[in-house]
C-alpha cells in the first residue's frame, strides 16, 4: 500500500507554478499588478526573447519593508488580506500570495526594493526557489525585479511555449490592456531593447488608447456610460469601420482587473448588432466598477475569470449603455445644422401629380429606362438636381419594352445593358448559334471533357440574382453563384500557391498599415507564407508594414481590410498549424473576391461560371463546406404538385 507523503516546499511551489505561471505573459501580469497595488505612478517593463531570457519590471511604488522582502517569496505570504472574509471584499489585484514563490521556483530572481521610510533598500537573489543573497543596497524608492531564464528547471513546461515573437505578442496584449485601464499610470514597454510604447500617465484614457491602437481607432470610437445603485459601466465602442473578424480587440475590466466574461461580451455585441450590418465583432473597451462584495474573483488560478452575484443586472447595464450611445450617435449623424432647421421648404410640387398612382413614377435615384421620366443623376449633381422631377407626361403609363429593340438601341451603352435580361438560346458544346446581327450575341464553343463532374446544363435563368437555374434531361439544378465562384477561386489559388505560379499585381499606391503589436508579430511569424501566397509585405517601422503587391484576382478588394481579416484568421488557428493549413485559411479568406449574391449576371457569365465549375476537383462544396449545387428531379417535382404518388 502506498503511503501519503507531504510534499516539500520546492515541489509544491513548482506544482503551483503550473497553474499560476502558464507562460511569460503570466509573469508579466502578476508583476505589473503588484506594482499597481503598490500605488506606482510609473512602471517600466523590459523583456528579452519573448520573456524567456528576461522580464524586468521597475516601479516607483511603496516598496517592500526590508524585513519582509524574503518573506514575500514564501507560499501564501501576502499583505493584501488577513482572513477568509477579506477574499469576498477584494480591493486589490493580487491577494493569494502564490505568484512570487511560484515564479521564484522556476527561474532566477533578482529583486531590489526600498520604501520611503528607510534610507536604504534590500536586494535579494533567488535561484530555483532558494535564497543565495540578501543584502543592503542603495536605490530610489520603489521596486525593481528581474526574472531570468524562466522554466530553466522545468524543461517539460518550456517546450510548450510558442515562438519568441508570439510570446512577445501575448505580453504586449497584457501590458497594453493594463495601460488602457490605468491611464493615470505612465507605463513604458521595451522589447529586446526597443521601446514599443510609452503612455503619458495623465489620466486621459483616449491618449492611452491612441498610444496603443493608433489614431484611426480613436477617431472611430463612441463613448458610453451607465450607472445603477451598485455598479457603473463605461468605456468606448467602435464603429463599423474598425470591426474585426475576431474578438481580439474586445477588452473588459472589472474594478480595473483585466478579465474575460462571456455575459458582458454578449451584451455589448448584441447592442452593437442593433445598429450594424457588418458580420464582424465590434471593437470595445468596457470597464465595470462594482462593489467588491458583489463579485467573486477567486474562481480561476490566474484570476482571469470573474463571477457576478447578479448576472442580469450586469447584462442590462452593459447593453443599455452601449445601445444608448450608438442610438444617440445615429441620431446625431442625421441631425441638421441649427441654421438649416427653419430653412427647409417644400417647393415645386406638381399640382396634378396623382399620388394614388405613385408606384408608376420612377424613383429619382433609380436608373431611368427612358430619358423623359426623370433627370439623369451623376456624381457631381447637386442635391436639388437629384430631387427635381421634370417633364412628367400627364398620361404616364407603364412602358413595355421589346428586348431586341432595346438591345439594338443600347448596344453602345454598357451601363444600360446591365439593366436588361434578354433570353438567349441554349448552346450545346458542338453547336453554334445563329442570331440576329443586331443583337450581337456570340458564344464560345466549350469542348466536352471526360472529367466533368456536372453535366452540361442549359441555363434557364437567375433567381433572386443569387441562384442560377439550369436543367439537364429531367432534372433541375440550382447553383449558388457566390459559393460556386468561391470554390473556383479557392482551388485555383491553392494550386497556384503549390506550383509557385501566383499572378501578382502591384498596388498603384502602396498601402501603409499600422498594426498593434499582436498583429505585427503575426505578420513577422508568417511573412514567408504571405509572400508565397502573393502578398509582398515590407517592414515600415514602428509596428507598421507596407503592402506593395497582392494576388491579381484580389485587385477589387480593400487590401487593408483583407490583410486584417487574414491576420484574425491566423490568430484563431492557434499555434502548431502546418503551412498547408495556413495556406488553406488564406485561400478561404481571399475568396471574398468571388461574385456576390444579388449580383446580376448575364447569360454568358452564367454559362462561363458553370462550365468552369464542372471541371474543378470538388464542385459540390464551397471552401466553408456548404453546398454549391442542389438538384430536383422531375419525379420529385411532380410529387410536390401531387401529379403522382
From TrEMBL:
It comes from Clostridium fungisolvens. GO terms for biological process: mismatch repair. Keywords: DNA damage, DNA repair, Hydrolase. Belongs to the DNA mismatch repair MutL/HexB family. The keyword Transmembrane helix does not apply. The keyword DNA damage applies. This is DNA mismatch repair protein MutL. Residues 209-327 form the DNA mismatch repair protein S5 domain. PANTHER family: DNA MISMATCH REPAIR PROTEIN MLH, PMS, MUTL, DNA MISMATCH REPAIR PROTEIN MLH1. GO terms for molecular function: ATP binding; ATP hydrolysis activity; ATP-dependent DNA damage sensor activity; mismatched DNA binding. Residues 459-601 form the MutL C-terminal dimerisation domain. PROSITE patterns: ARGE_DAPE_CPG2_1, DNA_MISMATCH_REPAIR_1, EF_HAND_1.
Amino acid at each position: 500500500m502506498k503511503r501519503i507523503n507531504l510534499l516539500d516546499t520546492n515541489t509544491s511551489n513548482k506544482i503551483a507554478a503550473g497553474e499560476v505561471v502558464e507562460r511569460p505573459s503570466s509573469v508579466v501580469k502578476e508583476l505589473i499588478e503588484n506594482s499597481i497595488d503598490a500605488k506606482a505612478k510609473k512602471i517600466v517593463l523590459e523583456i528579452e526573447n519573448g520573456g524567456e531570457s528576461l522580464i524586468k519590471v521597475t516601479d516607483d511604488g511603496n516598496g517592500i519593508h526590508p524585513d519582509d522582502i524574503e518573506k514575500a517569496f514564501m507560499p501564501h505570504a501576502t499583505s493584501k488580506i488577513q482572513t477568509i472574509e477579506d477574499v469576498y471584499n477584494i480591493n486589490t489585484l493580487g491577494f493569494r500570495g502564490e505568484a512570487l514563490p511560484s515564479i521564484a521556483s522556476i527561474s532566477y530572481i533578482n529583486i531590489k526594493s526600498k520604501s520611503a521610510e528607510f534610507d536604504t533598500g534590500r536586494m535579494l537573489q533567488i535561484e530555483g526557489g532558494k535564497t543565495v543573497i540578501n543584502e543592503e543596497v542603495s536605490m530610489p524608492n520603489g521596486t525593481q525585479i528581474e526574472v531570468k531564464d524562466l522554466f530553466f528547471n522545468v524543461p517539460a513546461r518550456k517546450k510548450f511555449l510558442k515562438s519568441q515573437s508570439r510570446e512577445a505578442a501575448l505580453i504586449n496584449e497584457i501590458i497594453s490592456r493594463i495601460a488602457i485601464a490605468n491611464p493615470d499610470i505612465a507605463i513604458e514597454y521595451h522589447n529586446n531593447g526597443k521601446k514599443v510604447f510609452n503612455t503619458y500617465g495623465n489620466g486621459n484614457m483616449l491618449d492611452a488608447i491612441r498610444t496603443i491602437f493608433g489614431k484611426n481607432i480613436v477617431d472611430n470610437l463612441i463613448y458610453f456610460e451607465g450607472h445603477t445603485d451598485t455598479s457603473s459601466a463605461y468605456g468606448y465602442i467602435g464603429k463599423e469601420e474598425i470591426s474585426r473578424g475576431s474578438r481580439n480587440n474586445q477588452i473588459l475590466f472589472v474594478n480595473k482587473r483585466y478579465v474575460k466574461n462571456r455575459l458582458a461580451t454578449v451584451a455589448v455585441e448584441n447592442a452593437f448588432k442593433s445598429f450594424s450590418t457588418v458580420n464582424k465583432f465590434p471593437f470595445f473597451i468596457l470597464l465595470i466598477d462594482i462593489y467588491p462584495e458583489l463579485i467573486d474573483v477567486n474562481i480561476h488560478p490566474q484570476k482571469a475569470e470573474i463571477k457576478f452575484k447578479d448576472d442580469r443586472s450586469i447584462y442590462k447595464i452593459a447593453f443599455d449603455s452601449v445601445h444608448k450611445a450608438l442610438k444617440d450617435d445615429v441620431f446625431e449623424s442625421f441631425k441638421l445644422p441649427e441654421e438649416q432647421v427653419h430653412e427647409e421648404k417644400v417647393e415645386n410640387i406638381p399640382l396634378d401629380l396623382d399620388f394614388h398612382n405613385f408606384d408608376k413614377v420612377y424613383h429619382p435615384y433609380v436608373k431611368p429606362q427612358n430619358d423623359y421620366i426623370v433627370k439623369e443623376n451623376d456624381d457631381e449633381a447637386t442635391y436639388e438636381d437629384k430631387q427635381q422631377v421634370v417633364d412628367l407626361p400627364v398620361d404616364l403609363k407603364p412602358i413595355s419594352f421589346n428586348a431586341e429593340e432595346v438591345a439594338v438601341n443600347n448596344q453602345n451603352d454598357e451601363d444600360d445593358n446591365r439593366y436588361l435580361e434578354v433570353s438567349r438560346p441554349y448552346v450545346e458544346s458542338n453547336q453554334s448559334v445563329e442570331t440576329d446581327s443586331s443583337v450581337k450575341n456570340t458564344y464560345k464553343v466549350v469542348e466536352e471533357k471526360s472529367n466533368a463532374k456536372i453535366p452540361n446544363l442549359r441555363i434557364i435563368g437567375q433567381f433572386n440574382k443569387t441562384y442560377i437555374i439550369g436543367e439537364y434531361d429531367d432534372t433541375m439544378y440550382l447553383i449558388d453563384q457566390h459559393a460556386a465562384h468561391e470554390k473556383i477561386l479557392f482551388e485555383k489559388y491553392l494550386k497556384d500557391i503549390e506550383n509557385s505560379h501566383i499572378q501578382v499585381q502591384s498596388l498603384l499606391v502602396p498601402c501603409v498599415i499600422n498594426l498593434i503589436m499582436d498583429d505585427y508579430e503575426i505578420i513577422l511569424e508568417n511573412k514567408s507564407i504571405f509572400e508565397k501566397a502573393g502578398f509582398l509585405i515590407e517592414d515600415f517601422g514602428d509596428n507598421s508594414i507596407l503592402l506593395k503587391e497582392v494576388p491579381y484576382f484580389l485587385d477589387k478588394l480593400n487590401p487593408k481590410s483583407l490583410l486584417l481579416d487574414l491576420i484574425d484568421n491566423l490568430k484563431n488557428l492557434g499555434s502548431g498549424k502546418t503551412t498547408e493549413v495556413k495556406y488553406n485559411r488564406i485561400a478561404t479568406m481571399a475568396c471574398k473576391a468571388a461574385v456576390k449574391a444579388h449580383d446580376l449576371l448575364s447569360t454568358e457569365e452564367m454559362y462561363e461560371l458553370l462550365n468552369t465549375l464542372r471541371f474543378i476537383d470538388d464542385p459540390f462544396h464551397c471552401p466553408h463546406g456548404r453546398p454549391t449545387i442542389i438538384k430536383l428531379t422531375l419525379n420529385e417535382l411532380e410529387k410536390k404538385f401531387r401529379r403522382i404518388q
